[in-house]
Structure formats: structure tokens, C-alpha cells
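Case study 2.
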Amino acid sequence: MLLMRLVAWGLMAGVRRGMPVRVCRRESRLFFVDRLIDMGAQIILCDPHRAVVVGHDRNRQLRGSRMSSPDIRAGIALLIAAMSAQGTSLISNIEQIDRGYENIEHRLNALGAKIERI
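Prediction:
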């Protein structure tokens, strides 16, 4: 359940409507949200456990960014957001993503993504 919530962050960063999200497990779970905000997502951090994903309007598209994957779940959320962003994104510390998603770039490229491991 928590994994699906965090993966949804990457998708919701590109939606038009707002959606409240609550993550109760650990305070550090929301630290990656700053990267989504840097990409142009409108997210309000209420406290260490809650945030509201406002989304963005169609005039503001997510933009590519340099970021680091803090853990498996947040890393995949950042990857999904990066795929929907305009421009190029660079995700470092991808070993975190590799731990849970073997050959993720090949699988996503087969679906039409443009991911290159450098």
C-alpha cells in the first residue's frame, strides 16, 4: 500500500486536481517531495507526515531536473515524474531503484519511455 502511494506521487505531480496524501511510517518518507517541487509540481507539505498534491495547470509542465534517489519507493516515484517531465532528468544513486526493479529501464523503454543509463 505504501509503495503504491509513493509511486502515485510521481503520477499525481502531473495532474490538474489536488489530492491529499498521508504517509505515517517515517518522517523521512517525504524528503523526496522537494525534488518534485523543484520539477514544478505544486505540493504543499503540511507536516512530516502529510502533504497535499495540488498538481499543476496545463500551462506549467514538469521540467527535467537533477536528483538523487533516496530509497526504492521514492526513486521509482521520481523516475515516473521524470518520464512525464519536459526536458532531460538525471537521477543519481540509482542503485536504490535497482534493488527493487531489475532492468527497469529496459522494461519502461519497451513501453515507449526514453531512459538511458549512463
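DSSP finds five helices and five strands in the chain.
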